[in-house]
């Protein structure tokens, strides 16, 4: 788990009971690829999200994503292929999908990486260029 916030004390207490959890303070962006690459799955329980850079970065590192149904999650995450979209706020639903993703992370990694390629800077720039050219013609 990475970051700090108002739930820090609860998370630290939880970690005391579950020793397999690593708790890190906030991390600079340039260190995130190393962290993604040792993870089995990214769990993102956001209430609000637009286009999630965190989700895109994890997928680019081949990490399956378990996320709430916010922003563009349903467009990018294909259940069982590169992660899971959880449509409830029940912790047991997140736990269930996270365990499945962890169990299948080896087979989901290639799909995770492949799923984000259409959203690369080069592809997005090319699509924007096409829109502008269409507008000018």
Give me the secondary-structure topology.
Layout: H1 8-17, H2 32-36, E1 42-44, H3 53-60, E2 65-68, H4 73-76, E3 83-86, H5 91-103, H6 105-116, H7 121-136
Parallel strand pairs: 1-2, 2-3
Q: How is this structure best summarized?
A:
The protein has 137 residues and is mostly helical.
Please report the first level of CATH classification, the CATH class.
Alpha Beta
Q: Tally of extended strands?
A: 3
Helical coverage, percent range: 40-55%
Please state roughly what percent of the residues sit in beta strands, choosing from under 5%, 5-15%, 15-25%, 25-35%, 35-45% or over 45%.
5-15%
Q: Which CATH-level-2 architecture?
A: 3-Layer(aba) Sandwich
Structural class of the helices, strands and pairings? Answer: mainly alpha
Q: Taking strands numbered 1, 2, ... along the chain, how are they ordered across the largest sheet? A: 1-2-3
Radius of gyration: 17 Å
Low-confidence stretches: none
CATH topology: Rossmann fold
| Bulk shape | elongated
Mean pLDDT, all residues: 89
Number of helices: 7
**First-residue to last-residue Cα separation:** 50 Å
Main sheet specs? 3 strands, parallel
> So, the CATH homologous superfamily?
Glycogen Phosphorylase B
- H and E order: HHEHEHEHHH
